[in-house]
Amino acid sequence: MSDLTANNEAGKNRPSKVKVPRVNDETKGFWAATGEGKLLVKHCNSCGENHFYPRTFCPFCFSDDTEYLETAGRGTIYTYSVMRRAKEPWAIAYVTLDEGPTMMTNLIDCDFDKLEIGQPVKVAFIDTGEGTAVPFFAPA
Amino acid sequence: MSIRGKAFIAGVYEHPLREATGKTVPQLHAEVAKGALEDAGLTKDDIDAYYCAGDVPGLGPLNQAEYMGLNLRQFDSTEVGGSSYVAHVNHAAQAIAMGHCKVALITLAGRPRADAKEKYFVRPGGGPPADYAFEAPFRPVVTNMYGMAAMRHMHEYGTTSEQLAWVKVAASHHAQHNEHAMLRNVVTVEDVLNSPMISDPLHRLDCCVMSDGGGAVIVVAPEIAAQLKRPSVKVLGAGEAVKHLNGGKVDLTFSGARWSGPKAFEEAGVSQADIKYASIYDSFTITVVETLEDLGFCAKGDGGKFVADGNLISGVGKLPFNTDGGGLCNNHPTDRGGITKVIEAVRQVRGEAHPKVQVPNCNIALAHGTGGLLGSRMGSATLIIGGEDA
Protein backbone atom coordinates (compact mmCIF):
# COMPACT_ATOMS: atom_id res chain seq x y z
CA MET A 1 0.00 0.00 0.00
CA SER A 2 3.04 2.25 -0.38
CA ASP A 3 1.65 4.06 -3.42
CA LEU A 4 -1.48 5.38 -1.75
CA THR A 5 -2.01 9.12 -1.80
CA ALA A 6 -2.95 11.35 1.12
CA ASN A 7 -6.57 10.73 0.21
CA ASN A 8 -6.14 7.12 1.17
CA GLU A 9 -6.14 6.32 4.85
CA ALA A 10 -4.98 2.73 4.93
CA GLY A 11 -6.79 0.53 7.40
CA LYS A 12 -9.60 3.00 8.03
CA ASN A 13 -13.21 1.91 7.63
CA ARG A 14 -12.42 -1.70 6.88
CA PRO A 15 -15.25 -4.16 7.60
CA SER A 16 -14.73 -6.17 10.76
CA LYS A 17 -15.90 -9.33 9.00
CA VAL A 18 -16.09 -10.30 5.36
CA LYS A 19 -18.90 -12.53 4.16
CA VAL A 20 -17.84 -15.46 2.05
CA PRO A 21 -19.82 -15.75 -1.16
CA ARG A 22 -20.86 -19.26 -2.14
CA VAL A 23 -18.74 -20.11 -5.14
CA ASN A 24 -20.55 -21.97 -7.92
CA ASP A 25 -19.53 -23.67 -11.11
CA GLU A 26 -20.18 -20.61 -13.23
CA THR A 27 -18.11 -18.17 -11.16
CA LYS A 28 -15.42 -20.29 -9.51
CA GLY A 29 -12.86 -18.90 -11.99
CA PHE A 30 -13.61 -15.37 -10.81
CA TRP A 31 -13.33 -16.24 -7.13
CA ALA A 32 -10.21 -18.39 -7.56
CA ALA A 33 -8.51 -15.38 -9.17
CA THR A 34 -9.44 -13.15 -6.24
CA GLY A 35 -7.36 -15.43 -4.04
CA GLU A 36 -4.39 -14.52 -6.24
CA GLY A 37 -5.17 -10.80 -6.06
CA LYS A 38 -6.63 -10.64 -9.57
CA LEU A 39 -9.90 -8.92 -10.49
CA LEU A 40 -11.53 -10.44 -13.56
CA VAL A 41 -14.41 -9.42 -15.80
CA LYS A 42 -15.89 -11.51 -18.59
CA HIS A 43 -15.04 -10.80 -22.25
CA CYS A 44 -17.19 -11.89 -25.20
CA ASN A 45 -15.23 -13.23 -28.15
CA SER A 46 -18.27 -12.81 -30.38
CA CYS A 47 -19.25 -9.15 -29.90
CA GLY A 48 -16.15 -7.91 -28.05
CA GLU A 49 -18.03 -6.49 -25.07
CA ASN A 50 -16.89 -6.91 -21.45
CA HIS A 51 -19.51 -7.62 -18.82
CA PHE A 52 -19.99 -7.94 -15.05
CA TYR A 53 -21.04 -9.89 -12.97
CA PRO A 54 -19.38 -12.72 -14.92
CA ARG A 55 -21.66 -15.24 -16.59
CA THR A 56 -21.38 -17.93 -19.24
CA PHE A 57 -23.64 -16.09 -21.65
CA CYS A 58 -22.82 -12.62 -22.95
CA PRO A 59 -25.78 -10.45 -21.86
CA PHE A 60 -25.33 -8.27 -24.93
CA CYS A 61 -25.26 -10.78 -27.81
CA PHE A 62 -26.12 -14.05 -26.00
CA SER A 63 -23.04 -15.85 -27.31
CA ASP A 64 -21.58 -18.44 -24.94
CA ASP A 65 -18.09 -17.85 -26.32
CA THR A 66 -16.97 -15.81 -23.32
CA GLU A 67 -13.73 -15.84 -21.32
CA TYR A 68 -12.22 -14.09 -18.31
CA LEU A 69 -10.23 -10.91 -18.79
CA GLU A 70 -7.86 -9.71 -16.07
CA THR A 71 -8.40 -6.06 -15.24
CA ALA A 72 -5.90 -3.56 -13.91
CA GLY A 73 -8.13 -3.25 -10.83
CA ARG A 74 -8.58 0.47 -11.38
CA GLY A 75 -11.59 2.64 -11.99
CA THR A 76 -13.63 5.63 -10.83
CA ILE A 77 -16.52 6.01 -8.39
CA TYR A 78 -19.82 6.02 -10.34
CA THR A 79 -21.87 6.57 -7.18
CA TYR A 80 -21.77 5.71 -3.46
CA SER A 81 -23.81 5.98 -0.29
CA VAL A 82 -22.51 5.90 3.28
CA MET A 83 -24.78 4.01 5.67
CA ARG A 84 -24.64 6.31 8.69
CA ARG A 85 -27.21 4.62 10.93
CA ALA A 86 -25.05 1.66 11.87
CA LYS A 87 -22.53 0.89 14.60
CA GLU A 88 -19.91 0.58 11.91
CA PRO A 89 -20.90 2.80 8.97
CA TRP A 90 -19.96 1.50 5.53
CA ALA A 91 -19.80 2.99 2.05
CA ILE A 92 -21.50 0.98 -0.65
CA ALA A 93 -20.54 2.08 -4.17
CA TYR A 94 -20.50 1.30 -7.85
CA VAL A 95 -17.09 1.59 -9.46
CA THR A 96 -16.67 1.87 -13.23
CA LEU A 97 -13.60 -0.15 -14.17
CA ASP A 98 -11.15 1.14 -16.77
CA GLU A 99 -12.13 -1.94 -18.83
CA GLY A 100 -15.77 -0.74 -19.04
CA PRO A 101 -18.11 -2.58 -16.68
CA THR A 102 -19.45 -0.99 -13.50
CA MET A 103 -19.46 -3.21 -10.40
CA MET A 104 -20.83 -3.03 -6.87
CA THR A 105 -18.31 -2.74 -4.04
CA ASN A 106 -17.53 -1.01 -0.75
CA LEU A 107 -15.06 1.86 -0.42
CA ILE A 108 -12.50 1.30 2.35
CA ASP A 109 -9.19 2.73 3.57
CA CYS A 110 -10.64 6.21 3.30
CA ASP A 111 -12.35 9.06 5.10
CA PHE A 112 -16.03 8.73 4.13
CA ASP A 113 -16.46 12.50 4.19
CA LYS A 114 -13.81 12.96 1.50
CA LEU A 115 -15.38 10.66 -1.09
CA GLU A 116 -16.49 12.08 -4.44
CA ILE A 117 -18.19 10.71 -7.53
CA GLY A 118 -15.58 10.48 -10.28
CA GLN A 119 -12.73 9.88 -7.81
CA PRO A 120 -10.07 7.36 -9.00
CA VAL A 121 -9.99 4.14 -6.98
CA LYS A 122 -8.16 0.83 -7.05
CA VAL A 123 -9.06 -2.63 -5.89
CA ALA A 124 -8.17 -3.59 -2.29
CA PHE A 125 -8.85 -7.28 -1.69
CA ILE A 126 -9.74 -8.55 1.77
CA ASP A 127 -8.96 -12.21 2.30
CA THR A 128 -11.77 -14.52 3.38
CA GLY A 129 -9.31 -17.11 4.71
CA GLU A 130 -10.78 -19.71 2.37
CA GLY A 131 -8.72 -19.16 -0.76
CA THR A 132 -10.86 -16.28 -1.97
CA ALA A 133 -10.91 -12.54 -1.37
CA VAL A 134 -13.60 -9.86 -1.67
CA PRO A 135 -12.87 -6.97 -4.06
CA PHE A 136 -13.24 -3.76 -2.10
CA PHE A 137 -11.90 -0.46 -3.48
CA ALA A 138 -9.80 2.32 -1.98
CA PRO A 139 -8.85 5.78 -3.25
CA ALA A 140 -6.04 5.40 -5.81
CA MET B 1 -61.98 -11.53 -27.60
CA SER B 2 -60.33 -14.94 -27.57
CA ILE B 3 -56.81 -16.31 -27.96
CA ARG B 4 -58.04 -18.67 -30.68
CA GLY B 5 -55.78 -18.18 -33.68
CA LYS B 6 -54.13 -15.14 -32.11
CA ALA B 7 -50.91 -16.82 -30.95
CA PHE B 8 -48.59 -19.56 -32.21
CA ILE B 9 -45.85 -21.69 -30.64
CA ALA B 10 -42.82 -21.01 -32.79
CA GLY B 11 -39.94 -22.75 -31.03
CA VAL B 12 -39.28 -25.40 -28.39
CA TYR B 13 -36.21 -26.97 -26.80
CA GLU B 14 -35.70 -29.74 -24.27
CA HIS B 15 -32.44 -29.79 -22.33
CA PRO B 16 -30.47 -32.97 -23.08
CA LEU B 17 -28.86 -33.32 -19.62
CA ARG B 18 -30.38 -35.36 -16.82
CA GLU B 19 -27.73 -34.38 -14.30
CA ALA B 20 -26.42 -30.85 -14.74
CA THR B 21 -23.28 -30.96 -12.60
CA GLY B 22 -21.05 -28.01 -13.43
CA LYS B 23 -23.86 -25.69 -14.49
CA THR B 24 -25.82 -23.10 -12.53
CA VAL B 25 -29.59 -22.71 -12.54
CA PRO B 26 -29.60 -19.29 -14.30
CA GLN B 27 -27.22 -20.80 -16.86
CA LEU B 28 -29.60 -23.71 -17.48
CA HIS B 29 -32.47 -21.29 -18.05
CA ALA B 30 -30.31 -19.41 -20.57
CA GLU B 31 -29.34 -22.67 -22.31
CA VAL B 32 -32.93 -23.76 -22.86
CA ALA B 33 -33.81 -20.22 -23.99
CA LYS B 34 -31.01 -20.30 -26.51
CA GLY B 35 -32.15 -23.70 -27.76
CA ALA B 36 -35.74 -22.58 -28.25
CA LEU B 37 -34.64 -19.37 -29.96
CA GLU B 38 -32.50 -21.35 -32.37
CA ASP B 39 -35.38 -23.73 -33.05
CA ALA B 40 -37.61 -20.76 -33.85
CA GLY B 41 -35.01 -18.90 -35.88
CA LEU B 42 -35.23 -15.91 -33.56
CA THR B 43 -32.60 -14.06 -31.53
CA LYS B 44 -32.46 -12.97 -27.91
CA ASP B 45 -33.25 -9.39 -28.85
CA ASP B 46 -36.58 -10.46 -30.42
CA ILE B 47 -37.88 -11.45 -26.96
CA ASP B 48 -40.16 -8.82 -25.43
CA ALA B 49 -41.95 -10.95 -22.82
CA TYR B 50 -40.68 -13.48 -20.28
CA TYR B 51 -42.62 -16.02 -18.22
CA CYS B 52 -41.10 -18.11 -15.47
CA ALA B 53 -42.03 -19.73 -12.16
CA GLY B 54 -40.36 -20.34 -8.82
CA ASP B 55 -37.50 -22.39 -10.25
CA VAL B 56 -35.77 -19.14 -11.27
CA PRO B 57 -33.60 -17.89 -8.38
CA GLY B 58 -34.41 -14.51 -6.89
CA LEU B 59 -37.33 -12.40 -8.03
CA GLY B 60 -38.02 -14.45 -11.16
CA PRO B 61 -38.10 -12.17 -14.19
CA LEU B 62 -35.94 -9.50 -12.50
CA ASN B 63 -32.85 -11.59 -11.90
CA GLN B 64 -33.16 -13.85 -14.95
CA ALA B 65 -33.83 -10.97 -17.38
CA GLU B 66 -30.67 -9.36 -16.09
CA TYR B 67 -28.71 -12.59 -16.49
CA MET B 68 -29.90 -13.00 -20.09
CA GLY B 69 -29.86 -9.31 -21.00
CA LEU B 70 -33.55 -9.18 -21.89
CA ASN B 71 -35.57 -6.02 -22.50
CA LEU B 72 -39.15 -6.84 -21.58
CA ARG B 73 -42.54 -5.26 -22.18
CA GLN B 74 -44.42 -8.02 -20.38
CA PHE B 75 -43.58 -10.54 -17.68
CA ASP B 76 -45.29 -13.00 -15.40
CA SER B 77 -44.03 -15.24 -12.63
CA THR B 78 -47.19 -17.13 -11.80
CA GLU B 79 -46.11 -20.00 -9.54
CA VAL B 80 -48.46 -22.96 -9.51
CA GLY B 81 -45.96 -25.79 -9.43
CA GLY B 82 -45.62 -27.99 -12.48
CA SER B 83 -48.68 -26.50 -14.12
CA SER B 84 -47.09 -23.05 -14.21
CA TYR B 85 -45.65 -23.36 -17.68
CA VAL B 86 -48.90 -24.45 -19.30
CA ALA B 87 -50.61 -21.50 -17.66
CA HIS B 88 -47.76 -19.32 -18.93
CA VAL B 89 -48.56 -20.32 -22.52
CA ASN B 90 -52.12 -19.17 -21.94
CA HIS B 91 -50.99 -15.91 -20.32
CA ALA B 92 -48.51 -15.25 -23.11
CA ALA B 93 -51.16 -15.95 -25.74
CA GLN B 94 -53.51 -13.50 -24.04
CA ALA B 95 -50.83 -10.82 -23.93
CA ILE B 96 -49.98 -11.38 -27.60
CA ALA B 97 -53.66 -11.35 -28.60
CA MET B 98 -53.98 -8.01 -26.84
CA GLY B 99 -50.95 -6.63 -28.64
CA HIS B 100 -48.92 -6.28 -25.44
CA CYS B 101 -45.99 -8.28 -26.75
CA LYS B 102 -44.87 -10.23 -29.81
CA VAL B 103 -42.28 -12.80 -28.72
CA ALA B 104 -42.73 -14.47 -25.32
CA LEU B 105 -40.11 -16.75 -23.78
CA ILE B 106 -41.11 -19.39 -21.21
CA THR B 107 -38.42 -21.35 -19.37
CA LEU B 108 -38.13 -24.12 -16.78
CA ALA B 109 -34.80 -25.39 -15.47
CA GLY B 110 -33.16 -26.77 -12.36
CA ARG B 111 -30.65 -29.26 -10.99
CA PRO B 112 -31.99 -31.14 -7.96
CA ARG B 113 -29.87 -34.25 -8.70
CA ALA B 114 -26.65 -32.26 -8.94
CA ASP B 115 -27.57 -30.33 -5.81
CA ALA B 116 -28.24 -33.56 -3.91
CA LYS B 117 -24.93 -35.02 -5.03
CA GLU B 118 -23.10 -31.89 -3.91
CA LYS B 119 -25.04 -31.99 -0.61
CA TYR B 120 -26.11 -28.43 -1.23
CA PHE B 121 -29.50 -27.69 0.26
CA VAL B 122 -31.54 -25.58 -2.12
CA ARG B 123 -34.76 -24.00 -0.99
CA PRO B 124 -37.56 -23.86 -3.55
CA GLY B 125 -36.51 -21.17 -5.97
CA GLY B 126 -33.17 -22.69 -6.85
CA GLY B 127 -30.91 -21.00 -4.30
CA PRO B 128 -29.48 -17.50 -4.54
CA PRO B 129 -29.66 -15.65 -7.86
CA ALA B 130 -26.52 -15.33 -9.97
CA ASP B 131 -25.93 -11.73 -8.89
CA TYR B 132 -26.01 -12.55 -5.17
CA ALA B 133 -22.35 -13.39 -4.61
CA PHE B 134 -21.31 -10.15 -6.32
CA GLU B 135 -23.51 -7.96 -4.15
CA ALA B 136 -24.13 -9.56 -0.74
CA PRO B 137 -20.55 -9.00 0.53
CA PHE B 138 -21.11 -5.26 0.14
CA ARG B 139 -24.24 -5.14 2.33
CA PRO B 140 -26.80 -3.65 -0.06
CA VAL B 141 -29.68 -2.88 2.28
CA VAL B 142 -32.66 -1.09 0.75
CA THR B 143 -31.81 2.42 1.93
CA ASN B 144 -28.27 2.55 0.56
CA MET B 145 -29.41 1.14 -2.79
CA TYR B 146 -31.80 4.08 -3.22
CA GLY B 147 -29.19 6.40 -1.73
CA MET B 148 -26.76 5.52 -4.53
CA ALA B 149 -29.40 6.39 -7.14
CA ALA B 150 -30.06 9.71 -5.43
CA MET B 151 -26.34 10.53 -5.20
CA ARG B 152 -25.90 9.96 -8.93
CA HIS B 153 -29.05 11.93 -9.82
CA MET B 154 -27.76 14.84 -7.75
CA HIS B 155 -24.35 14.58 -9.41
CA GLU B 156 -25.70 14.57 -12.97
CA TYR B 157 -28.64 16.96 -12.64
CA GLY B 158 -27.97 19.13 -9.61
CA THR B 159 -30.96 17.75 -7.73
CA THR B 160 -30.89 18.93 -4.10
CA SER B 161 -31.94 17.51 -0.73
CA GLU B 162 -34.37 20.43 -0.41
CA GLN B 163 -36.09 19.35 -3.64
CA LEU B 164 -36.32 15.72 -2.49
CA ALA B 165 -37.78 16.94 0.81
CA TRP B 166 -40.70 18.56 -1.02
CA VAL B 167 -41.98 15.08 -1.93
CA LYS B 168 -42.29 14.22 1.77
CA VAL B 169 -43.77 17.63 2.55
CA ALA B 170 -46.52 17.07 -0.04
CA ALA B 171 -47.26 13.57 1.26
CA SER B 172 -47.56 14.90 4.82
CA HIS B 173 -50.01 17.59 3.72
CA HIS B 174 -52.23 14.79 2.43
CA ALA B 175 -51.71 12.39 5.36
CA GLN B 176 -53.03 14.89 7.91
CA HIS B 177 -56.52 14.14 6.54
CA ASN B 178 -56.15 10.34 6.62
CA GLU B 179 -57.21 8.97 10.00
CA HIS B 180 -55.42 5.68 9.30
CA ALA B 181 -52.09 7.24 8.30
CA MET B 182 -49.11 6.33 10.50
CA LEU B 183 -47.61 9.83 10.28
CA ARG B 184 -50.21 12.61 10.28
CA ASN B 185 -48.11 15.61 11.22
CA VAL B 186 -47.45 18.15 8.46
CA VAL B 187 -43.69 18.53 8.02
CA THR B 188 -41.53 21.21 6.42
CA VAL B 189 -38.47 21.01 4.19
CA GLU B 190 -36.39 21.90 7.25
CA ASP B 191 -37.93 19.02 9.22
CA VAL B 192 -36.80 16.59 6.53
CA LEU B 193 -33.28 18.03 6.32
CA ASN B 194 -32.96 18.02 10.12
CA SER B 195 -34.04 14.40 10.49
CA PRO B 196 -31.15 11.93 10.99
CA MET B 197 -29.09 10.96 7.95
CA ILE B 198 -29.72 7.29 7.23
CA SER B 199 -27.70 6.56 4.10
CA ASP B 200 -26.34 9.50 2.08
CA PRO B 201 -28.15 11.54 0.90
CA LEU B 202 -31.40 10.11 2.32
CA HIS B 203 -32.63 11.35 5.70
CA ARG B 204 -35.08 9.45 7.85
CA LEU B 205 -37.96 11.51 6.46
CA ASP B 206 -36.89 10.69 2.88
CA CYS B 207 -37.79 7.07 3.67
CA CYS B 208 -41.21 5.42 3.69
CA VAL B 209 -42.75 3.91 6.79
CA MET B 210 -42.75 0.19 7.59
CA SER B 211 -46.24 -1.14 8.23
CA ASP B 212 -48.45 -4.19 8.35
CA GLY B 213 -51.76 -4.30 6.53
CA GLY B 214 -52.49 -4.85 2.88
CA GLY B 215 -55.13 -4.36 0.20
CA ALA B 216 -57.02 -6.09 -2.58
CA VAL B 217 -58.37 -5.24 -6.00
CA ILE B 218 -61.12 -6.97 -8.01
CA VAL B 219 -61.05 -6.78 -11.79
CA VAL B 220 -64.20 -7.84 -13.69
CA ALA B 221 -65.60 -8.12 -17.19
CA PRO B 222 -67.70 -5.20 -18.54
CA GLU B 223 -70.98 -7.14 -18.24
CA ILE B 224 -70.31 -7.76 -14.54
CA ALA B 225 -69.35 -4.12 -13.93
CA ALA B 226 -72.64 -3.06 -15.52
CA GLN B 227 -74.58 -5.08 -12.91
CA LEU B 228 -72.79 -3.63 -9.87
CA LYS B 229 -73.91 -0.68 -7.77
CA ARG B 230 -70.60 0.94 -6.87
CA PRO B 231 -68.99 3.34 -9.38
CA SER B 232 -66.81 1.24 -11.67
CA VAL B 233 -63.46 2.43 -12.87
CA LYS B 234 -62.31 1.67 -16.36
CA VAL B 235 -58.87 0.21 -17.07
CA LEU B 236 -57.53 2.35 -19.91
CA GLY B 237 -53.98 1.16 -20.36
CA ALA B 238 -51.01 -0.51 -18.74
CA GLY B 239 -47.31 -1.05 -19.24
CA GLU B 240 -44.61 -3.16 -17.63
CA ALA B 241 -40.84 -3.21 -17.75
CA VAL B 242 -37.84 -4.72 -16.03
CA LYS B 243 -34.79 -2.51 -15.63
CA HIS B 244 -31.49 -3.99 -14.44
CA LEU B 245 -27.73 -3.43 -14.33
CA ASN B 246 -27.37 -4.32 -18.00
CA GLY B 247 -24.19 -6.41 -17.79
CA GLY B 248 -22.34 -3.59 -16.05
CA LYS B 249 -23.51 -0.69 -18.25
CA VAL B 250 -25.03 0.89 -15.16
CA ASP B 251 -27.26 3.99 -15.18
CA LEU B 252 -29.07 4.69 -11.90
CA THR B 253 -30.60 8.00 -12.99
CA PHE B 254 -33.69 6.40 -14.50
CA SER B 255 -36.19 3.68 -13.62
CA GLY B 256 -38.16 1.13 -15.60
CA ALA B 257 -40.94 3.73 -15.83
CA ARG B 258 -39.06 5.04 -18.85
CA TRP B 259 -40.42 2.01 -20.71
CA SER B 260 -43.61 1.07 -18.85
CA GLY B 261 -44.98 4.64 -19.00
CA PRO B 262 -45.04 5.25 -22.77
CA LYS B 263 -46.71 1.86 -23.30
CA ALA B 264 -49.47 2.71 -20.81
CA PHE B 265 -50.04 6.20 -22.25
CA GLU B 266 -50.18 4.82 -25.79
CA GLU B 267 -52.73 2.15 -24.92
CA ALA B 268 -54.84 4.57 -22.90
CA GLY B 269 -54.75 7.13 -25.69
CA VAL B 270 -54.06 9.93 -23.24
CA SER B 271 -51.12 12.22 -22.54
CA GLN B 272 -49.47 13.45 -19.35
CA ALA B 273 -51.60 16.61 -19.50
CA ASP B 274 -54.75 14.45 -19.20
CA ILE B 275 -53.67 12.89 -15.87
CA LYS B 276 -55.58 14.63 -13.07
CA TYR B 277 -54.07 12.55 -10.26
CA ALA B 278 -51.03 10.27 -9.94
CA SER B 279 -50.22 7.55 -7.38
CA ILE B 280 -46.44 7.29 -7.58
CA TYR B 281 -44.64 4.57 -5.65
CA ASP B 282 -42.78 6.44 -2.92
CA SER B 283 -40.46 4.02 -1.17
CA PHE B 284 -38.15 7.02 -0.96
CA THR B 285 -38.39 10.62 -2.14
CA ILE B 286 -35.89 9.93 -4.94
CA THR B 287 -38.16 7.17 -6.27
CA VAL B 288 -40.86 9.76 -6.96
CA VAL B 289 -38.48 12.24 -8.60
CA GLU B 290 -37.01 9.71 -11.02
CA THR B 291 -40.40 8.14 -11.78
CA LEU B 292 -42.08 11.46 -12.60
CA GLU B 293 -39.28 12.24 -15.06
CA ASP B 294 -39.48 8.78 -16.62
CA LEU B 295 -43.27 9.01 -16.99
CA GLY B 296 -42.78 12.26 -18.92
CA PHE B 297 -44.35 14.70 -16.45
CA CYS B 298 -41.15 16.73 -16.82
CA ALA B 299 -37.86 16.44 -18.70
CA LYS B 300 -35.17 14.02 -17.45
CA GLY B 301 -33.23 15.78 -14.73
CA ASP B 302 -35.96 18.33 -13.98
CA GLY B 303 -37.75 16.15 -11.41
CA GLY B 304 -36.30 18.06 -8.47
CA LYS B 305 -37.57 21.37 -9.79
CA PHE B 306 -40.92 19.77 -10.70
CA VAL B 307 -41.70 18.53 -7.19
CA ALA B 308 -40.51 21.71 -5.40
CA ASP B 309 -42.75 24.39 -3.93
CA GLY B 310 -45.75 22.14 -3.34
CA ASN B 311 -46.33 21.10 -6.94
CA LEU B 312 -47.51 17.65 -5.77
CA ILE B 313 -49.97 18.97 -3.14
CA SER B 314 -53.65 18.56 -3.99
CA GLY B 315 -55.34 21.92 -4.48
CA VAL B 316 -51.98 23.70 -4.64
CA GLY B 317 -49.78 22.13 -7.33
CA LYS B 318 -50.19 20.96 -10.91
CA LEU B 319 -49.95 17.21 -10.22
CA PRO B 320 -51.66 16.01 -7.01
CA PHE B 321 -49.97 12.78 -5.92
CA ASN B 322 -50.48 10.15 -3.20
CA THR B 323 -53.43 11.86 -1.57
CA ASP B 324 -53.67 9.07 1.04
CA GLY B 325 -50.26 10.12 2.36
CA GLY B 326 -48.51 7.42 0.36
CA GLY B 327 -45.76 5.17 1.62
CA LEU B 328 -43.95 8.16 3.08
CA CYS B 329 -46.73 8.88 5.62
CA ASN B 330 -49.65 6.46 5.36
CA ASN B 331 -48.56 2.84 4.98
CA HIS B 332 -46.30 0.41 3.12
CA PRO B 333 -47.83 -2.97 3.88
CA THR B 334 -45.35 -5.82 4.11
CA ASP B 335 -42.76 -3.58 2.40
CA ARG B 336 -44.75 -3.64 -0.84
CA GLY B 337 -46.85 -0.59 -1.55
CA GLY B 338 -48.04 -1.32 -5.06
CA ILE B 339 -51.64 -2.16 -4.28
CA THR B 340 -52.25 0.94 -2.16
CA LYS B 341 -51.24 3.02 -5.18
CA VAL B 342 -54.04 1.45 -7.24
CA ILE B 343 -56.55 1.82 -4.39
CA GLU B 344 -56.05 5.57 -3.89
CA ALA B 345 -56.19 6.17 -7.66
CA VAL B 346 -59.55 4.32 -7.72
CA ARG B 347 -60.81 6.48 -4.82
CA GLN B 348 -59.88 9.60 -6.77
CA VAL B 349 -61.65 8.49 -9.94
CA ARG B 350 -64.72 7.48 -7.92
CA GLY B 351 -64.65 10.87 -6.19
CA GLU B 352 -64.29 9.09 -2.85
CA ALA B 353 -60.94 10.47 -1.66
CA HIS B 354 -60.99 12.65 1.46
CA PRO B 355 -62.81 15.92 0.55
CA LYS B 356 -59.73 17.94 1.52
CA VAL B 357 -57.60 16.13 -1.07
CA GLN B 358 -60.16 15.03 -3.69
CA VAL B 359 -59.18 16.27 -7.14
CA PRO B 360 -62.19 17.92 -8.87
CA ASN B 361 -63.48 16.06 -11.96
CA CYS B 362 -60.80 13.38 -11.62
CA ASN B 363 -61.75 11.44 -14.75
CA ILE B 364 -58.27 10.07 -15.51
CA ALA B 365 -55.65 8.89 -13.01
CA LEU B 366 -52.35 7.04 -13.09
CA ALA B 367 -50.86 4.53 -10.66
CA HIS B 368 -47.23 3.44 -10.84
CA GLY B 369 -45.43 0.70 -8.92
CA THR B 370 -41.71 0.10 -8.48
CA GLY B 371 -40.61 -3.28 -7.14
CA GLY B 372 -37.07 -4.25 -6.28
CA LEU B 373 -34.36 -1.61 -6.03
CA LEU B 374 -33.72 1.66 -7.86
CA GLY B 375 -30.03 0.93 -7.28
CA SER B 376 -29.93 -2.39 -9.14
CA ARG B 377 -32.91 -4.20 -10.66
CA MET B 378 -36.60 -3.38 -10.55
CA GLY B 379 -39.98 -4.28 -11.95
CA SER B 380 -41.92 -1.21 -13.09
CA ALA B 381 -45.65 -1.20 -13.75
CA THR B 382 -47.82 1.69 -14.91
CA LEU B 383 -51.62 1.67 -14.90
CA ILE B 384 -53.96 4.34 -16.26
CA ILE B 385 -57.60 4.28 -15.20
CA GLY B 386 -60.61 6.47 -15.80
CA GLY B 387 -64.27 7.07 -15.05
CA GLU B 388 -67.31 5.84 -16.97
CA ASP B 389 -66.89 8.30 -19.84
CA ALA B 390 -63.09 8.32 -19.99
Most residues in contact, chain pair and counts? A-B, 48 and 53 residues
Count of structural domains of chain A: 1
**CATH-assigned homologous superfamily of the largest domain in chain B:** Thiolase/Chalcone synthase
Give me the secondary-structure category of chain A: mainly beta
Helical residues, percent of chain B: 25-40%
CATH class of chain A: Mainly Beta
**N→C terminal distance of chain A:** 10 Å
Number of helices of chain A: 1
Please tell me the total number of domains of chain B. Answer: 2
By CATH, the topology of the largest domain in chain B is Peroxisomal Thiolase, Chain A, domain 1
Strand-residue fraction of chain A?
A: 35-45%
Beta-strand portion of chain B reads 5-15%
Order of helices and strands of chain A: HEEEEEEEE
What is the straight-line distance between the termini of chain B?
21 Å
Describe what you observe in this structure:
Chain A is mainly beta. Chain A has one helix at residues 28-34, and strands at 40-44, 50-51, 66-70, 74-83, 90-97, 102-107, 120-127, 133-139. Chain A has 1 helix and 8 strands. With 390 residues, chain B is α/β, with parallel strands linked by helices. Chain B has 2 domains: 25-138, Thiolase/Chalcone synthase (Peroxisomal Thiolase, Chain A, domain 1), CATH 3.40.47; 142-386, Peroxisomal Thiolase, Chain A, domain 1. Chain B has helices at residues 25-40, 61-68, 84-97, 112-117, 142-157, 161-175, 189-194, 222-227, 257-268, 285-294, 303-307, 326-330, 338-350; strands spanning 49-51, 74-76, 104-106, 197-199, 202-203, 234-243, 277-280, 364-372, 378-386. Chain B has a 4-stranded mixed sheet, with helices on both faces. Chain B has a 3-stranded parallel sheet with strand order 2-1-3, with helices on one face. Chain B has a two-stranded antiparallel sheet with strand order 4-5. The relative contact order of chain B is 0.14. Chains A and B meet through β2, β4, β5 and β6 of A and α1, α2, α5 and β4 of B.
